[in-house]
Amino acid sequence: MRRLRQTDAIRNLVAEVNLTVNDLVAPLFVREDITDSVPISSLPGVSQHSQDSLLGEVDRLGSMGVPAVILFGIPAEKDPEGSQAWNPDGVVQVALRNLRERFGDDLVIMADLCVDEYTSHGHCGIVDGNGRVDNDETLDLYANAAVAQADAGAHIVAPSGMMDGQVLAIRDALDEAEHPDVAILAYSAKYASAFYGPFRDAVDVTIVDGGNRAGYQQDWRNGREALEEIRLDVGEGADMIMVKPAMSYLDIITRARMELDIPIAAYHVSGEYAMVKAAAANGWIDGDLVAMEQLTAIKRAGADFILTYFAADVAAQLG
Ligand code: PBG
User: Fold this and answer.
1) pLDDT 10s digits, 154-165
2) Is there an atom of ligand 1 within 6 Å of 112 CB?
3) Partner of 146 for a Cys bridge, out of 27, 52, 58, 170, CB 3.0 to 4.6 A?
4) Residue 154 falls within a domain, yes or no?
5) Is 190 helix (H, G, I), strand (E, B) or coil?
6) How far is the CA of 273 from the centre of ligand 1 (A)?
7) Is 266 in the pocket of ligand 1 (CB under 6 A)?
8) Do residues 186 and 157 touch, judged by C-beta distance below 8 A?
9) With a 6 A CB cut-off, is 272 part of the ligand 1 pocket?
10) How far is the CA of 7 from the centre of ligand 1 (A)?
């Protein structure tokens, strides 16, 4: 085997997978009440954007060849239902309209579909009298948000709330609203993960009463359950599925790949990014190389594309 490792040219010839810029989706944060971008301290290099600075950032990503973005919103007002998630003038809907107008179909425009950034209690749905999220009542909120995002120009909506039946509810609502071409990327296997820490700073979300999402996101002790979640979402009409986080769940990506022929996404999440950046800032690792190694490993495990805060850094390296 060593013979095939002797030169860069031979190594390139026999490489089983190659990360390319086409594999990258950049997560972007757009905030309602700001006029300039605000850096997120726990995600070095990532900012909350104003509507204007968002367009500038997407110009920059596009010029580097990054083909897709996914939007998260930070509204000025929150309420128990998260109604800004479907207000046609809500922060993400405005951003979607601006992006679609500027980039048309040259950019893949995705919207994260959940209500946690918009609810006063920070949960991903309607909270009942016992402090639990009511699955079925929450589906109506997601249907509303899906239609608002599609009306505003999203090519793909990505439900991340882990409610049972959410994909079917969203598909029905989109079809009813005459958006049959808007695709669904389902966050099917989403774990109740401590790796989301920096993201909650990025979107200013604190879950009320020190709560967590273990009542709806997956238990990280379980792998078979993830496959069952994925099967259910595919059955409900998901066009693509996602595994999240990525690095601690490569086994799930591989098992999904063995079973499915539809596209599989992986989300290299905020904590995964922040750990690399922090270690690199201390001079303990080479951050650029570790990013390439991790993202390539996610592809090797079986993912077709990767949502990653490294999108710009890696596009620059690949450029
Ligand atoms: C929910 C959502 C979360 C992330 C993406 N969508 C947070 C959560 O479930 O608490 C996390 C992404 C990351 O950590 O990078 N809207």
Assistant:
1) 999 999 999 999
2) yes
3) 170
4) yes
5) strand
6) 13
7) no
8) no
9) no
10) 41
pLDDT tens figures, 43-71? 999 999 999 999 999 999 999 999 999 99
Cβ–ligand 1 contact at 116 (below 6 Å): yes
Compute the mean pLDDT over every residue in the chain, rounded to the nearest whole number.
97
* pLDDT tier, 210 (very low <50, low <70, confident <90, very high otherwise): confident
pLDDT band at 130 (very low <50, low <70, confident <90, very high): confident
pLDDT per residue as tens digits for the range 222-270: 999 999 999 999 999 999 999 999 999 999 999 999 999 999 999 999 9
How far does CA 95 lie from the centroid of its chain?
16
For residue 114, how far is its CA from the centre of ligand 1 (angstroms)? 9
Q: Rg (Cα) of the chain, in Å, rounded?
A: 19
What CATH code is carried by the domain that includes residue 86? Answer: 3.20.20.70
Residue 78 falls in the annotated catalytic set: no
Any domain includes 290 = yes
The CB density around residue 177, as the number of other CB atoms within 10 Å, is 15
Candidate from 40, 116, 123 with most ligand 1 atoms within 8 A of CB, to mutate: 116
> Closest ligand 1 atom to the C-alpha of 217?
9
* Domains identified in the chain, total number: 1
Does residue 314 carry a pLDDT above 90? yes
Beta bridge partners of 71: 28, 111
Q: Is residue 6 part of a domain?
A: no
The candidate with the shortest Cα–Cα distance to 246, out of 42, 25, 69, is 25
Closest to 29 measured CA to CA, from 266, 205, 290: 205
